[in-house]
Specification:
This protein is mainly alpha-helical and about 400 residues long. The protein has helices at about 1-10, 10-15, 30-45, 55-75, 80-90, 100-120, 130-140, 170-185, 195-215, 220-235, 240-245, 245-250, 255-265, 270-310, 315-330, 345-350, 355-370, and strands at about 160, 165, 370-375, 380, 395, 400. The chain has two domains: about 1-295, Fido-like domain (Fic-like fold, Orthogonal Bundle); about 310-390, Arc Repressor Mutant, subunit A (Orthogonal Bundle). Helix content is about 60%, strand content about 5%.
């Protein structure tokens, strides 16, 4: 009874009535549930994709750079994606006046790596108020901070971000604990283990939204919320590259992100539009990520196919033709016949003392082998031949086409 009375008298109930720690998803459109199911499926697909170690490392570094940049850029970090990649590779030199930007990136990378390390070591990673404080310390480590800002400490003063006023300082400790209890409670309890990722996506977005509303720290709240989101996703089995995609979405649609946050509070805690916005952005990111992965696999499979076609063929003519199709494979579109020897230094050397007849014989041989295709714009690698299950569609004239 005393606890009920204490809770009822809290200032936040008057100033922030939308902090309800409950959600009614019955009004969610069927399309939202379909999008969540597709997100689960695509995450499982990405997690099970075989890639060559070199390609996998490149993709991991690329999406880590994108995620770290997105997490900090939305708060004002001005480094470019290329600069972040260079920094992660140890190649970026910044003047002293911009070194703090790299430190912001390092802090997010360290936070993400610590989460992944703890998951891989199979240590329990329960979301608690202490854990959220710990992540805030990661965010603010070694950064120049305003007076009174203490990393990992709950703020003791009121804050306003743009037009939004954070929860009352005296209630932040209580609200942070209440949030963790709610996320660990029955409302998010799994009824089916095979939907763990879909459930975690909802939990991650709710955690992000409520942390943005509560604003428990004097600085680094947005970055902390995105690390919490990352932890929840990683712990559910979302592969690391995909777990950065929500941050990318928020950053790429920054104006809409703030509009959705503002609308959710002003509507009295109607969170479905924000959930829909976040999930659809995540799904778009997963589709794009799978496209990149698919293209990597396609390149490897195509090169293996070309080598297999020449495995029983030897001699300088066959070696030159193999080089021609492999080097041509690196170009997206057709190359005019006369320009073919210019597409690589290797081909320029091999065709330097040969006539156009030799080039024509080589092209015709590769056309017969099904490794090249020719159209009015020139010659291209016929990489599509190894795509076994391309959908067949009807064109405008009713003829079937692939």
């Amino acid at each position: 009874m005393n606890n009920i009375a204490l809770t009822a008298s809290r200032t936040c109930e008057t100033t922030h009535p939308w902090l309800k720690f409950k959600v009614d998803m019955r009004s969610a459109a069927p399309t939202l549930w379909m999008a969540l199911a597709e997100c689960q499926s695509k995450c499982e697909h990405i997690a099970g994709v075989p890639l060559q170690p070199e390609n996998a490392e490149k993709l991991h570094l690329l999406f880590l750079a994108k995620g770290a940049l997105a997490t900090t850029a939305i708060e004002g970090n001005t480094l470019s994606e290329a600069e972040v990649l260079q920094h992660l590779q140890g190649k970026l030199q910044l003047p002293p006046s911009r070194e703090y930007l790299a430190q912001e990136i390092d802090n997010i990378v360290a936070g993400c790596n610590s989460i992944v390390d703890e998951i891989q070591s199979r240590r329990p990673l329960t979301l608690t108020a202490d854990r959220i404080r710990h992540l805030n310390r990661y965010v603010l480590e070694k950064l120049p901070l305003d007076e009174g800002v203490m990393p990992g400490e709950i703020r003791r003063h009121e804050v306003t971000v743009a037009r939004y006023r954070g929860a009352p300082a005296e209630d932040c400790e209580f609200l942070l604990g209440r949030l963790c209890e709610w996320l660990a409670g029955e409302e998010f309890a799994l009824q089916r283990e095979d939907l763990s990722i879909a459930s975690a996506i909802l939990k991650a977005v709710f955690a992000h939204l409520y942390l943005a509303w509560i604003h428990p720290f004097a600085d680094g709240n947005g970055r902390t919320a995105r690390l919490v989101e990352f932890q929840i996703l990683i712990a559910s089995g979302v592969p690391a590259p995909a777990a950065h995609l929500l941050s990318n979405h928020y950053n790429q649609t920054r104006t809409e992100y703030y509009r959705q946050l503002d609308h959710a509070s002003k509507s009295g805690g109607a969170v479905i539009p924000f959930i829909d916005y976040a999930v659809r952005g995540l799904l778009d990111g997963l589709r794009a990520q799978l496209k990149v992965i698919r293209e990597q696999q396609w390149e490897v499979a195509w090169e293996n196919h070309v080598h297999d076609c020449f495995r029983q063929l030897s001699g300088p003519n066959h070696e030159r033709r193999k080089h021609l199709v492999l080097d041509l494979s690196k170009h997206a579109g057709p190359i005019p016949f006369n320009k073919l020897p210019e597409i690589s230094a290797r081909l320029a050397t091999e065709y330097a003392n040969r006539t156009k007849r030799t080039l024509a014989r080589d092209v015709n041989a590769l056309l017969k082998m099904g490794l090249l295709r020719r159209d009015s714009n020139g010659v291209a690698a016929a990489k599509e031949v190894i795509l076994a299950f391309l959908p067949i569609r009807a064109n405008a004239k009713g003829k079937k086409e692939q």
